[in-house]
């Protein structure tokens, strides 16, 4: 990234004012011989730095050489695509502005301050025959151009090309400012000293990265995030008694369970056929005796419908015993979704009167009943079912197990659809009474057992 | 083959059972309970010859042999159990019966998994087992409940643990005290009170012990959930039940005081522990380890991280002693260490804590080493990875405060001065902050080193491990603790592996704070590494969070703006730099405490940031000054020097006792003057601030 000290010495040798009479072209050739092409940018940066700081290159002749060398550094390439083209444009533009009276301040960091002569040289190089100019020696240039006025020069085209290239660069890349700030102490008017200048130039140009290519860009203040804050920064440790969990001996080994075996046998039968009254009683007493037995008799939610159809009374007993079980919801959902029948309704009815069933469950069951009634094809069966449902609903309403308001629309539509059936009409009347606030109907005779009528 | 065995055994267990067999079984049980395992085994062997295919006999034989080996031949019993009962069957109602018969075996399997820290596998078994809780014999049922709750606690699911606990309380504790109806909205609080009165009547020792254990669990869960008032209530119940004050209840009480911010009181309580001692060899946990660890917690919360480190190192040493006391040289612990000591190693947790303390003490390098070691055991913890990344960040930039110390930093405005007289050159700083780019050295970033590159890897892990459902709408009025059980159908409805229907406030807040930290750190590190697209992504994700504390909102805006500037989208960046974008500078969301539901308000836990050094910037005006300064930077980069200068002037003017401004402000002022060509002004600014270069 940087010129080696000996390279810099080389460069400064080429720029030596003893080369006063060597043609610029010749000097440029020397330069290109001394430095390979890939060093061009470094050389250019160094030249520019020397031009920027008049104290480092105070001699007119040297400055003329530097301008010419900088211009010729990328010879053979279109000017607009060389890195230092902007410098030329800015130098000439600044001079235009000053002549136009818009006074720019004395120092703008990166733009070298050139003398009239140097500007003229640049203008010639840019607009006139550069080759002719390059053939001249620095002495000739100074003689010819020292007092000439800057020829008018049209840079529009070049400027456009440069602007186009620049627009491709992000703003962050374009906002840098060199970090070298000259601070001439004019009070101590020390004489120009070549070796001091050289050593200063060296310390500016040599380094990694060299000071002359560093820049300061407006810098975002990036705050580091705070340390994570947790409610349990350090983990408190409580006593966990790991020894309380240990391997257990199975105490149920070879413990006979005669009662259980008999109950299990009866249950197996109950899924398939109706049990005799005696058998039913036996099973119920066994279940009552051992509250845990109910879990060991082979009942699963999937088998519940069979049990309900064959032995509704046993089903009710068993379900009541399972109320505390974690599986009870599964049993309920099976019950709700099984095919509607007198037996299932009987089971649900009994359950509603003995335990608090979840309202969702009851509502779901009613909706299920209604939709079964509506979809059934067999006319005779339909009538039978509708009557059943109506009696069931009346019973629920009179026992205040359901709140009619929540199902009003559904039930009303049901009554209207089946208004031909006596029980439906009766239910409808009951609904109307309730709606009008007449609760007399509710105080009628308990209809708990009416469901047995069919 | 096992299937054939099973079906056969089912038949035999139901049908034939001779008088002789029954006697043998009874004798075996008696001997087992007496602890004379060899005699027990001789009975079991006889029984086995009579009933060669009875699974329970085989099982008990294996168990008795295990006890005979002082619970040391764990590997062996594990294999034997697997051979006897096979794997946990897939949930299928038809096999329900089978599993009821195998409850003890399943429980044992889960116990082994628990002690070998395979918590998820254990949970799977226990959740399934819990569906058969009703048919289970009571003492086993109690054990199943306790293990299931413990597993939920160790897997950090306090919400699920609590709903489970409440359900269990309602099922077991109150089972005789007249059935509580499903609709009883009082929840499990009532049964406890009822029972208290009932206690004298039914002196059921087992149930009492069970209830006390449940209460302790509940206290622990409430502590995890930061429901301190509720916890206090449980603790009081515990004491009023006449529970002896022992080491475990003392730790609970001290924990409570610790979380309430009363570290001194907690310290007193901790030091009230008398002679009682838990020895690792016999209990599976060492009182010394716990004690030193907890003392360290207290010192940390008192803002003394160095003392905390000291005690953590003591705890680590005690832990090592404890492990050495049971370890038999060069042998597999699974065949020579008692079962309950297998999971007792706290080394990695302690290492993590030590790391946190060191980090707070400013020793990021040592902290980093601790975390690297802890990562061997806690690699699934997003917190750990975040902490490692924090070490990396700390190495890169240990404090924000330094930039605001203008007297100290202003010498950095100028690098040096070269030459004298005509040749005098002032060399300005090229950058005031440490510049980082990707390390070009050929080191793999995966090697743990406190570099930003490695930090980025850690943060990727952390992001990946963040809990998924943490964006759940945070209930601002937290539901009363005891009611988190969903009671819609029956208590059982909430069961079956989905206990956590509702996430408690504490869990949600913790998850949000963690996510914010991970995202902010990710955005920061990406920015430092020059990965602006990723940085912007993280910053936006951060700002998109539902709830975000003030400091993180500020950081999200800053990081988003900076990445946008580097992506040359200055207009968009400026949107993020409006001073009204910040309201406060809190660094975390507090956990709100639930009070009794009759008092309808929530109260903020008064916990001063435990052990935290306050985050800089501390004052809101300073925060705004940072935003404003960066806005000036954005303008300057866009070339709008006048606007930038004006904004900068505002920042400068806002300087005051409660508003610090960063050194960068002066540098930017210099820049603007230089760009405008006012070299003289620039020089005088330098000479004013850097008198040494006058």
From TrEMBL, chain A:
<keyword id="KW-0804">Transcription</keyword>
<keyword id="KW-0805">Transcription regulation</keyword>
<dbReference type="GO" id="GO:0005737">
    <property type="term" value="C:cytoplasm"/>
</dbReference>
<keyword id="KW-0943">RNA-mediated gene silencing</keyword>
<comment type="similarity">
    <text>Belongs to the CNOT11 family.</text>
</comment>
<dbReference type="GO" id="GO:0031047">
    <property type="term" value="P:regulatory ncRNA-mediated gene silencing"/>
</dbReference>
<dbReference type="GO" id="GO:0030014">
    <property type="term" value="C:CCR4-NOT complex"/>
</dbReference>
<dbReference type="Pfam" id="PF10155">
    <property type="entry name" value="CNOT11"/>
</dbReference>
<dbReference type="InterPro" id="IPR019312">
    <property type="entry name" value="CNOT11"/>
</dbReference>
<keyword id="KW-0963">Cytoplasm</keyword>
<dbReference type="GO" id="GO:0005634">
    <property type="term" value="C:nucleus"/>
</dbReference>
<keyword id="KW-0539">Nucleus</keyword>
<protein>
    <recommendedName>
        <fullName>CCR4-NOT transcription complex subunit 11</fullName>
    </recommendedName>
</protein>
TrEMBL record, chain B:
<comment type="function">
    <text>Component of the CCR4-NOT complex which is one of the major cellular mRNA deadenylases and is linked to various cellular processes including bulk mRNA degradation, miRNA-mediated repression, translational repression during translational initiation and general transcription regulation.</text>
</comment>
<keyword id="KW-0943">RNA-mediated gene silencing</keyword>
<protein>
    <recommendedName>
        <fullName>CCR4-NOT transcription complex subunit 10</fullName>
    </recommendedName>
</protein>
<dbReference type="GO" id="GO:0030014">
    <property type="term" value="C:CCR4-NOT complex"/>
</dbReference>
<dbReference type="GO" id="GO:0031047">
    <property type="term" value="P:regulatory ncRNA-mediated gene silencing"/>
</dbReference>
<dbReference type="GO" id="GO:0017148">
    <property type="term" value="P:negative regulation of translation"/>
</dbReference>
<dbReference type="InterPro" id="IPR019734">
    <property type="entry name" value="TPR_rpt"/>
</dbReference>
<keyword id="KW-0810">Translation regulation</keyword>
<dbReference type="InterPro" id="IPR039740">
    <property type="entry name" value="CNOT10"/>
</dbReference>
<comment type="similarity">
    <text>Belongs to the CNOT10 family.</text>
</comment>
<keyword id="KW-0539">Nucleus</keyword>
<dbReference type="GO" id="GO:0005634">
    <property type="term" value="C:nucleus"/>
</dbReference>
<dbReference type="GO" id="GO:0006402">
    <property type="term" value="P:mRNA catabolic process"/>
</dbReference>
<dbReference type="GO" id="GO:0005737">
    <property type="term" value="C:cytoplasm"/>
</dbReference>
<keyword id="KW-0804">Transcription</keyword>
<keyword id="KW-0805">Transcription regulation</keyword>
<dbReference type="InterPro" id="IPR011990">
    <property type="entry name" value="TPR-like_helical_dom_sf"/>
</dbReference>
<keyword id="KW-0963">Cytoplasm</keyword>
């Amino acid at each position: 990234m940087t010129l080696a000290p000996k390279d810099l010495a080389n460069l400064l040798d080429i720029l030596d004012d003893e080369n006063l009479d060597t043609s610029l072209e010749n000097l440029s050739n020397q330069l290109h011989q001394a430095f390979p092409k890939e060093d061009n940018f470094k050389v250019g940066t160094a030249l520019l730095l020397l031009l920027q700081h008049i104290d480092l290159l105070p001699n007119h002749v040297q400055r003329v050489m530097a301008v010419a060398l900088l211009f010729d550094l990328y010879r053979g390439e279109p000017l607009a695509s060389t890195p230092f083209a902007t410098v030329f444009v800015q130098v000439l533009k600044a001079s235009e502005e000053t002549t136009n009276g818009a006074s720019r301040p004395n120092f703008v960091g990166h733009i070298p301050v050139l003398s009239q002569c140097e500007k003229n040289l640049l203008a010639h190089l840019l607009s006139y025959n550069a080759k002719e100019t390059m053939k001249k020696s620095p002495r000739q240039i100074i003689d010819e151009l020292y007092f000439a006025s800057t020829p008018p020069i049209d840079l529009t085209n070049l400027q456009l090309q440069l602007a186009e290239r620049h627009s491709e660069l992000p703003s962050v890349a374009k906002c840098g400012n060199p970090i070298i700030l000259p601070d001439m102490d004019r009070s101590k008017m020390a004489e120009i000293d070549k070796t001091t200048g050289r050593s200063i130039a060296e310390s500016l140009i040599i380094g990694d990265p060299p000071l002359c290519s560093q820049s300061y860009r407006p810098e975002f203040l990036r705050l580091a995030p705070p340390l994570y804050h947790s409610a349990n920064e350090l983990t408190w440790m409580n006593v966990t008694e790991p020894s309380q969990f240990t391997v257990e001996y199975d105490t149920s080994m070879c413990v006979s369970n005669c009662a259980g075996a008999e109950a299990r046998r009866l249950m197996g039968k109950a899924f398939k056929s109706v049990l005799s009254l005696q058998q039913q009683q036996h099973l119920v007493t066994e279940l009552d005796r051992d509250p845990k037995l109910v879990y060991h008799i082979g009942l699963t939610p999937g088998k519940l419908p069979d049990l309900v159809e064959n032995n509704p009374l046993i089903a009710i007993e068993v379900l009541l015993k399972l109320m505390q079980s974690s599986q009870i919801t599964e049993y309920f959902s099976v019950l709700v979704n099984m095919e509607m029948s007198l037996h299932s309704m009987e089971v649900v009815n009994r359950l509603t009167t003995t335990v608090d069933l979840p309202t969702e469950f009851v509502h779901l069951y009613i909706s299920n009943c209604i939709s079964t009634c509506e979809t059934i094809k067999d006319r005779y069966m339909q009538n039978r079912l509708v009557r059943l449902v109506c009696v069931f609903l009346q019973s629920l309403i009179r026992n205040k197990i359901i709140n009619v308001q929540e199902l009003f629309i559904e039930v009303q539509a049901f009554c209207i659809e089946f208004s031909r059936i006596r029980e439906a009409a009766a239910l409808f009347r009951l609904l109307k009474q309730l709606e009008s606030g007449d609760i007399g109907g509710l105080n009628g005779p308990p209809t708990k057992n009416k469901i047995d009528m069919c | 083959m096992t299937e054939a065995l099973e079906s056969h055994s089912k038949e035999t267990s139901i049908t034939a059972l001779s008088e002789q067999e029954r006697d043998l079984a009874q004798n075996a049980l008696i001997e087992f309970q007496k602890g004379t395992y060899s005699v027990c085994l001789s009975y079991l062997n006889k029984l086995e010859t009579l009933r060669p295919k009875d699974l329970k006999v085989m099982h008990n034989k294996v168990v008795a042999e295990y006890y005979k080996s002082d619970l040391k031949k764990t590997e062996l019993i594990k294999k034997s159990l697997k051979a006897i009962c096979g794997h946990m069957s897939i949930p299928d109602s038809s096999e329900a019966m089978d599993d009821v018969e195998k409850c003890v075996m399943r429980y044992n399997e889960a116990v082994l998994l628990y002690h070998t820290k395979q918590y998820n596998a254990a949970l799977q078994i226990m959740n399934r087992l819990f569906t058969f809780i009703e048919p289970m014999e009571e003492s086993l049922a109690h054990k199943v409940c306790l293990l299931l709750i413990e597993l939920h606690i160790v897997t950090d699911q306090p919400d699920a643990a609590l709903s489970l606990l409440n359900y269990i309380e309602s099922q077991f504790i109150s089972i005789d005290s007249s059935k509580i109806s499903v609709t009883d909205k009082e929840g499990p609080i009532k049964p406890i009170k009822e029972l208290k009165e009932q206690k004298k009547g039914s002196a059921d020792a087992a149930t009492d012990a069970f209830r006390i254990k449940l209460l302790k669990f509940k206290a622990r869960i409430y502590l995890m959930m930061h429901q301190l008032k509720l916890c206090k209530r449980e603790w009081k119940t515990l004491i009023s039940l006449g529970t002896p004050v022992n080491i475990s209840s003392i730790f609970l009480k001290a924990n409570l005081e610790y979380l309430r911010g009363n570290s001194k009181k907690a310290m007193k309580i901790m030091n009230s522990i008398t002679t009682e001692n838990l020895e690792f060899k016999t209990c599976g946990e060492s009182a010394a380890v716990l004690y030193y660890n907890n003392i360290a917690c207290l010192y940390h919360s008192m803002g003394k991280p160095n003392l905390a480190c000291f005690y953590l190192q003591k705890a680590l040493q005690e832990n090592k002693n404890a492990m050495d006391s049971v370890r038999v040289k060069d042998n597999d612990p699974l065949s020579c260490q008692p079962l309950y000591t297998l999971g007792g190693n706290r080394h990695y947790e302690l290492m993590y804590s030590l790391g946190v303390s060191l980090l707070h003490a400013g020793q990021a390098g040592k902290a980093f080493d601790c975390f690297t070691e802890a990562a061997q055991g806690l690699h699934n913890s997003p917190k750990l990875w975040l902490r490692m990344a924090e070490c990396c960040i700390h190495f890169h930039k240990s404090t924000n405060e330094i930039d605001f110390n203008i007297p100290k930093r202003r010498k950095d405005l100028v690098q040096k001065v070269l030459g004298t007289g005509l040749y005098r050159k002032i060399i300005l700083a090229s950058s005031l902050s440490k510049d980082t780019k990707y390390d070009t050295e050929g080191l793999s970033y995966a090697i743990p080193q406190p570099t930003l590159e490695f930090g980025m890897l850690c943060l990727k892990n952390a992001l990946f491990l963040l809990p998924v459902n943490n964006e759940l709408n945070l209930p601002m009025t937290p539901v009363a603790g005891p009611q988190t059980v969903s009671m819609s159908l029956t208590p059982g409805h909430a069961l079956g592996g989905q206990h956590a229907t509702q996430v408690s406030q504490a869990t949600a807040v913790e998850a949000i704070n963690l996510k914010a930290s991970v995202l902010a750190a990710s955005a920061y590190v990406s920015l430092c590494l020059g990965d602006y697209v990723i940085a912007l992504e993280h910053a936006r994700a951060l700002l998109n969070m539902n709830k975000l504390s003030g400091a993180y909102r500020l950081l999200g805006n800053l990081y988003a703006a900076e990445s946008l500037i580097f992506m040359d989208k200055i207009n968009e960046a400026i949107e993020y730099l409006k001073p009204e974008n910040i309201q406060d500078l809190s660094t975390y969301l507090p956990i709100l405490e639930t009070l009794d539901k009759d008092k309808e308000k929530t109260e903020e836990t008064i916990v001063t940031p435990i052990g935290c050094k306050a985050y800089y910037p501390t004052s809101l005006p300073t925060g705004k000054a940072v935003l404003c300064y960066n806005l000036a930077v954005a303008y300057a980069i866009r070339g709008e020097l006048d606007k930038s200068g004006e904004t900068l002037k505002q920042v400068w003017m806002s300087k005051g006792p409660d508003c610090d401004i960063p050194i960068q402000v002066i540098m930017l002022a210099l820049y603007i003057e230089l760009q405008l060509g006012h070299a003289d002004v620039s020089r005088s600014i330098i000479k004013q601030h850097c008198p040494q270069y006058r």
